[in-house]
Specification:
The strands form six sheets. The protein has a five-stranded antiparallel beta sheet, sandwiched between helices. The chain has a three-stranded mixed beta sheet with strand order 2-1-5, with helices on one face. Helix 9 (328-344) packs antiparallel against helix 10. It has 19 helices and 16 strands. 33% of the residues lie in helices and 9% in strands. By secondary structure, the chain is α+β, with helices and mostly antiparallel strands.
Length: 757
């Protein structure tokens, strides 16, 4: 604001107390007398009348000049009073209608300057937008500052594990291979120079993002009609590999650029290059320059030749396709491109490049091993959970018996080749474990290369093999193998379980007879008598974790479960304690809490299991000291035999992946024969004897008429609400007074089970 004394046009004139007026200024053609001066106006001498074009006047707004707008020197000439509101103009007088209005100005009070409103008085959207911007900046800064810069130097989350059998033979390798980080300063200059020459020539000049490199890549791609060259810098590649996914999107690219700029600000060029070389992928599961040098050339990065460094640098573009172990010619052609780039950048001389081409050869430093097997796939998660992430390769000793494993594979394959086509059996599975849960053999299918699905660990209905839990529950409630149970047709509130070919004893028989014959009607009656909840509790005690049907159909094994867990439950009977946890690691520790079975439970169950193999449905598996039980699901879709001899417990399953019925195959047929062949081989190699138990409760007397066992029983198709056809030689089927139960649940790809042994 200027001082009033600096005004060039009008100088203020002093007003005398007497009110003397100076000589009036000449006015050109006045048309009306000047408006009278009010008390609030300055003296006439301070008024300058400026002719103006007549215009329509608006009602003036009251304006108060702020005190701060007045210069200190003029405060004595300004009347500090409230702003005067100019009255409404009177109706225009015809004589004065055309008179111009006088413009009243003050020579001492300049026009006020409007001030900005306080921050909290501004519009809400402005305040909100500012807050959002500050929040976004804070979040980005916080995220960047908290980025784990050393992530590229850390071991991988899935390190390499080498599995060994009990004899120390390596059987499989799984996981990614990464060695300790490299330091660029310790490498020959041509090693990092090879990567810089082919991947990012301006690495030491840009700030993490190279606009020139992007433009060059765009031109090359436009000429090639496709993506032939990338514009990402080494810093961007490090940002992507260490912190981001490989998803192609604008969002991921923006994150990559942001992190690259941050890395350039926090790390030196050599630190960035060291992290890049320590984490980049080189194919064959090898991550980092040190792992790649060992894997392909059996060297350390510090001893790589020019040609070897160039070949590894060339692999970065397409690691899997250019791996020299799989495509040596392609890797060598790419190496020549890298050597030319190294010569162009002055990293090496043309003579060195020519020599490098002649000297290159591949000499891998790691032995070839399978990447998996049914057993390896099953045990790897256990090993990964136990061993910490580390560099290099971790050797893990397992429980696998290589000889028994080979025999199990051969026995299953031979049985399927011999009888599979005629019986419509395409698949099978075998699990062999010791009584402490050590899995010594596992076959999950006919051919691992053709199908990696592990049928030994898949869920299928166990059929009558589940009756182990029903009868053990009865023994827990005070029954014995000689306790009677009615073996006759029964209707359970509209559901009609049946024995195979509708054969019934038609009378009460001892539990041992019903178990050996695998009577379904007896098992359902027994399940009703002991209660479903008690059966479920027994199954849980023996380590079964699978869902169990919520009705009495559980007695017939209608709920799918794994062959591994079913075999472990039988191992608990052989061991005399529960639970038995199946495991594959040699240094596995037994659970602290185990519960021994009572003598009555052990003696009773072993009598039942022995009766099935000596006189019952599992007679095809009969060898000295054998205990076991058969199982057949509805319509011959699954057939099983699970049993033990000495301290070896074996479970066998056969069936089809599409759940189609087999041609009359039952648990006492092909599965029992496979079990017997494998168990006989194991006995010949020497198996330890099972714990000795006094088995004097129920001697197996060949003359005992209660042990006249019919062929393995099963269920005929059930028709809810329709009574079972009575055997002419048997009494009428009594109605079971049990409350209604739900029909057998429908499993995927299979109708409700109605046939079971």
């Amino acid at each position: 604001m200027s001082d009033p004394s600096d005004e060039p046009k009008i100088a203020p004139r002093a007003v005398s107390p007497e009110g003397a007026t100076p000589k009036p200024k000449r006015v050109r053609k006045p048309t009306a007398a000047p408006a009278p001066v009010t008390a609030a106006e300055p003296a006439p001498e301070t008024i300058k009348a400026a002719p103006a074009k007549p215009r329509r006047l608006r009602k003036p707004r009251p304006v108060a000049a702020p005190i701060s707008a007045v210069e200190p020197e003029t405060l004595d000439t300004v009347q500090l009073a409230p702003a005067v509101v100019e009255p409404e103009p009177a109706p225009a007088d015809p004589e004065t209608a055309e008179a111009p209005q006088a413009s009243v100005t003050s020579d001492t009070a300049p026009a006020p300057v409007p001030s900005k409103p306080a921050l909290w008085r501004r519009r809400a959207w402005q305040v909100g937008a500012g807050a959002v911007v500050l929040l976004v900046i804070s979040v980005i800064a916080s995220l960047l500052w908290s980025l784990p810069l050393g992530r590229a130097l850390e071991p991988l989350a899935n390190p390499t594990l080498i599995l060994e059998a009990t004899d120390g033979t390596a059987i499989a390798r799984r996981g990614s291979y990464k060695e300790a980080p490299v330091v660029v300063a310790n490498l020959p200059a041509y090693v990092p120079g090879a990567f810089v020459s082919i991947e990012d020539r301006r690495f030491y000049k840009h700030i993490g993002v190279d606009p020139k490199g992007i433009a060059r890549a765009m031109r090359s791609n436009a000429k090639a009609g496709g993506v032939s060259e990338g514009g990402s810098t080494i810093t961007q590649q490090l940002a992507k590999n260490a912190f981001l996914s490989n998803q192609r999107s604008l969002r991921r690219k923006a994150q990559e650029v942001l992190i690259a700029l941050y890395l350039e600000a926090r790390l030196s060029k050599n630190e960035i290059l060291s992290r890049y070389l320590s984490s980049i992928y080189f194919g064959d599961g090898a991550f980092g320059l040190r792992a790649a040098a060992r894997h392909y050339f059996d060297k350390t990065p510090e001893t790589l030749s020019v040609g070897e460094a160039a070949m590894l640098a060339g692999m970065v573009k397409a690691p899997s396709r250019l791996a020299p172990t799989e495509n040596f010619d392609g890797a060598k052609a790419r190496m020549r491109v890298v050597l030319v780039a190294m010569v162009d950048t002055g990293t090496i001389t043309p003579a060195q490049a020519a020599q490098a081409v002649r000297d290159i050869h591949v000499d891998g430093g790691r032995r070839k091993l399978p990447t998996g097997s049914y057993f390896a796939d099953w045990v790897f998660p256990q090993a990964k959970a136990v061993f910490e992430n580390t560099y290099g390769e971790t050797v893990v000793r397992t429980t696998l018996d290589r000889d028994l494993q080979a025999k199990a594979e051969k026995v299953l394959r031979s049985a399927l080749d011999r009888d599979g086509k005629g019986l419509n059996v395409s698949q099978g599975a075998i699990v062999a474990m010791r009584t402490d849960g050590r899995v010594v053999a596992m076959v999950g299918g006919r051919d691992y290369k053709a199908s990696q699905f592990n049928r030994a660990d898949g869920d299928r209905p166990p059929g009558s093999a589940f009756k182990l839990f029903v009868y053990l529950t009865a023994l827990r409630q005070g029954m014995t193998p000689t306790s009677p149970i009615l073996d006759a047709p029964v209707i359970v509130s509209g559901w009609t379980p049946k024995n195979h070919e509708s054969k019934y004893a038609g009378r009460e028989v001892p539990l041992i007879t019903a178990f050996a014959a695998s009577s379904n009607v007896a098992a359902v009656r027994l399940a009703k008598q002991v209660g479903r909840d008690s059966i479920v509790r027994t199954a849980r005690d023996l380590g079964v974790t699978d869902p169990i049907p919520d009705d009495l159909t559980l007695a017939l094994g209608t709920g799918p479960m794994s062959l591994v867990r079913l075999t472990a439950a039988y191992a608990a009977i052989a061991a005399g304690e529960t639970p038995v946890v199946p495991h594959g690691l040699a240094d596995w520790r037994k659970p602290a809490k185990v519960h021994p079975l009572t003598k009555a439970e052990l003696v009773g169950m072993r009598d039942l299991l022995r009766s099935a193999t000596q006189r019952g449905t599992g007679i095809e598996a009969a060898i000295p000291g054998a205990f076991g039980k058969t199982g057949t699901s509805q319509s011959y879709r699954d057939a099983l035999f699970v049993g033990y001899v000495g301290d070896l417990v074996i479970g066998v399953w056969v069936g089809n992946d599409d759940n189609s019925p087999m041609n009359g195959v039952v648990g006492g047929g092909m599965p029992a024969k496979i079990w017997k062949e494998l168990a006989s081989y194991a006995v010949g190699r020497g198996v330890r004897a099972a714990p000795v138990i006094d088995e004097s409760l129920v001697p197996l007397n060949p003359e005992d008429p209660t042990l006249e066992i019919a062929p393995e029983v099963t269920l005929d198709p059930a028709v809810p609400g329709e009574p079972a056809p009575a055997d002419p030689a048997s009494p009428a089927a009594p109605a079971d007074p049990s409350p209604p139960i739900a029909p057998v649940p429908v499993a995927p790809a299979a109708p409700p089970p109605s046939e079971n042994r």
